[in-house]
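Here we describe the complex-level prediction in full. Unlike the single-chain runs in Section 2.1, the three entities below were treated as one system.
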Amino acid sequence: MNKKWVGTDVKRKQDARLLTGQGTYVDDVQLPGMLYCSYLRSPYAHARIKKIDTSKAVKLPGVVTVLTGEDIKGYPLPTCIDQPGQKSVDGLVFPMAVNKVRWAGEPVAAVAAVDRYISEDALELIDVEYEPLPVVVDIEKAMEKNAPLLYEELGDNILVRIPATFGDIDKAFNEADHIISERLYEQRYSGFPLEARCTIANYKSADKKLEIWTSTQGPFQARSYISRVLNIPEQNIRVIVPDVGGAFGNKWVWGDDIVPCLFSIMTGKPVKWTENRMEAFMASPHSRDYIYDVQVACKNDGKILGVKSNMIANYGAEAANRGPGAGPVVAAGFSLLGPYKVNALSIDHIGVLTNKSFYGAYRGYGKDMANRVLERMINIMSRELAIPPEEIRRKNYIQPNEYPYRQLSGSLYDSGNLPELQRRTLEMMDYDNLKKDKERLRKEGKYIGIGIAAKVEPSGGIPTNAFYAGYEGVSVKITSEGGIILAHGLVDIGQGTESTLTQVVADELGVTPDDIRAIIGDTDMTPCGAGPFSSRGASWTTSCTVNACQKLREKLLKVGANLLKVKLEEVDIANGKVYLKKTPSKSLTIRDIARAAHYFPGVYAAYPADMLAEDASLEVTTYYTAPQPPVSWVPPICFYTTHATAFEGAIVEVDPDTGILKIKKYFTTHDCGKVINHMIVDGQIHGGTLQGIAGAMYEELQYDENGQLLTTTFMDYLMPTAAEAVDIQIDRIETPSPFTPLGTKGAGEGAICATPSVIVNAVEDALGVTVKRTPLTPERVLSLVKEAKQKKTI
Amino acid sequence: MGKTITLTVNGVTHEASVEPRMLLVDLIRDKLHLTGTHIGCVSGKCGACTILLNGISVKSCMIFAIQADGADIVTIEGIAKGDKLHPIQEAFRDNHGLQCGFCTPGMVISAYQLLKKNPDPTDDEIKKGITGNLCRCTGYTNIIKSVKDAAKRMKEGEK
Amino acid sequence: MRPKGFEYFAPNTIDEAIGLLGKYEEEAKILAGGLSLVPLMKLRLAEPKYLIDINKIPNLSSVTEGNDGVLRIGALTPYYILEGSGLIRTKSPIIHEVASTLGDPQVRNRGTIGGNICHADSACEFLPVILALDVELKAMSSSGERIIKASDFFLGMLSTALNRGELLTEIGVKTILPNTGQTYQKLVVRSGDHPIVSVAAIIKLGKNKICEYINIRLGSVAPIPVKARETEKALLGEKINDELINSAAELSTNGIEPISDTHASSEYRTEMTKVMTRRALKLAFNRAGGNK
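The structure predicted for the assembly as a whole is:
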């Protein structure tokens, strides 16, 4: 069979409609009689609610009804992820604040009105009396004995604590020649897709059916979540996800969908909530914002013997009830060793609660944090041991012939070749000459820095004890006129799943992607799938699609052979036809087979006896579970199905007068196994890399000590414009995964994970001092320049 | 309360009753049902709402609908000719210049305006021409490539 | 987010506009490009009861040169017109420099020079430029026309010398003189943002590179752009060279009151005032023919 679509840069199906303004994003949808919902949000970061008076708001013409926390306290939000060492705040988190607000921006009341404008007017007429409480926003202050408590019931502010030890950590540290210690810090930032969240709830009371349009990554999670909270039988809920304007993990939350549903149930009308940009900054999932205290034990030659990692992440007001946001500190611990052979690891990772917005998923989900540890510590070790950083890495890599490799902390790495990735990237960079140039330019007062980092991108994760802990369903069907439909739950959030999976089907069935239509984003129309998080598409949905297609192919061959009156071994499928191998002109098109099976001559003539007895259909629905990951928290704990890898580098220039940092060029050699569509993978690399650069240099969710968010618009939160775009050179190798049928590995998150490490390493290389804090604003870089001059490293 | 205004959008004349505070982008999206123009922010920074107003690219969330009385507007829906994509749209499709598509209508309008003023832009000129349009997905790399390719196609189309 | 309701007027003449301004006084706001006002209204930080849209008034957007060598710019002239004007580029390159780098293309298509000046926020980029140019601002009211010098126009943050019932109609700019170098330089973290610090510098060189005229205004470091008097004093009448510029730039921070915000601290702004003054002066010096 001619396999030719996987590996080809097929153009995307959705582009024609998206380019001509014919896409449908949730806010584009208008339903008859639709009302608009607006939230009133707390101006205080921590306060008791004494009184809410909505009487004036209710009277405003055009306002239909108003809800406060008191009204909805019968609808607590469920726990979406439950990990050992995680405390429960079940029964304490609601769609709107009940009795107490825990962050500035938490909703306290909501209005449903006939248009957007009036719904906002009504907010000003709601009077709320607050009793402010002491505020805590700082990680270390939140850990103190007498810190203000977010949930008095918990006794402290620790939501999750994962201590774990692997190997003989004491031996490692005793045998070390050096112990390198450092505190690593990354600021709070998040994804902020250009389309903020939007939900329309439409309850049909006669049928007792709830239909929801929502911009989410997880339609099935949304359905289950809403069913649990509102106690509506799940079969009566339909979640529709049309086009999604980006997500990056930030749309893996459903807590803010409850109030629009309640409004719709109360009013009998469709109700739309469109998140505005200010709300998105103040009250959508936040990420990063952590401190690592790390110690690396190593020998004189750079061999790493052991790592101790104490980490605290700032989980904000909650992290497990609006969505499964509490996982990152865990992922950060178990992914920490990256591509290195290290025999001892001890972690004590904490997610602490503070009066900031709640925590969620943002591209990386802790694997980005994990990358920071060894990639930065190796850089620091390099300066202390006077060994080049690329040498230290080479010395510690897992070698290509050692895969599949069981990492110390439990992950089973499928395949990889870091030495080759490193070699290619350094060659692309002309690394040795670069180092010479750097020295020459330094004498001229120009400060160039070269940063490098390796990366493992664990992908296809299945958190156990979480919403959708590990399966994926796909349907492939041939319709009666030979149409081909692929139905799956992998919502297209920009990464192209509407098209890429049809490439997989095309190869398996011997047709073209144009012959196939993908149905996604509708819980009534597709089998259950967990959706795009943890870069699952290439491992889970792709593998499931391959399995489904192979079964369907079998059916087509069987029915084709039956109709051609030959034996099964005598036929094959290609170019849309089942054909006799020795006489290819004797063939039937898929349409011929479909018609024969459905009507002319019909089921009894078309299907062979065994299929008639079992399953006379040209449809397959199948579910897939990855072969490797665990079912429990008993070691070895491996959350991820596949592991992509990369080696990245950057050349930066520091202006010593202003601290302005210019990234002259970025390089990556990337390996995500078998690539379905290079154009799409490259696009993910471009986007993720710039997001990582933005995290390293520009973006920060700045809070003051009263818990007021200071960066509430795109004027203050510095998302890059085209002027900040960076020249990225990409090379690739493909080491297939032995764990997936096509050898594919997930690649969606990878590009962001190492980038901040690379940029920080580059600045440290330029100046010879350690970066204590990001983002690397010009002001911060200038203070590093001064420190470098004082320490005479430049 | 409302004033009746008349405006031409993509060659079609419309009459609409608007209260003064209605934003032009809301008129276009909610009343005229041309939902290709998007809203991505509150402060006029993101450019997802970019349209052509009397031939000039502007952010329609920064303008009141009532100000567009008598105006000639082009939105993304007016760029293609029926089923035939404009060379800019073809270039974006062929160069993977869009991922989620949310910034894309505004981006195409800005590219359209840029190439009208400057049919042969350098990469730096392209970057400058689209700094008013934020994109979160693509890192701008393929957008710049798409606009460069569009310029080439438009020049060849003129021959 | 959506604004509160208001009553809207679109007068066709200056007299009509002035009449409305006089009638509604502080409850009315002028709507020009809208780029300063509309975001504030959407956030409900500004809630004018009356909006006077002056975009329908003819002859308020223009760039002409008089026989007296004065460039007259209509208050409603958008930045993109200034950016594209050959007259501006040759006769007042500093205005070309600010107009072509402010904001982004859509902002430049809509923002007006008059709107920027009358908003009078410390971040408004035309402010240091028109102060360095010593422009004359023409305002009209029911009592007639009035000329206000730029140096008298700004009273404080968001506050100008325009009376209620007065409309800015024209900006008069002395054109470039021979052996004059002018530049507008700014430090931004991200393209299109408000400057951390900006410098408008105009220098005229006489024989032997003696500085005959110098005017330096620093933007974004105080409610009103600051005249760098100490730096000017150190340069005026002196033979200009790099070392003198370096030492003079060190004096530029006298009189500045920079704030600390999410973008930068006051300390950093103070330090960058010196750096950007130095860079602007070197560039202006070069443009004045100093390096020939």
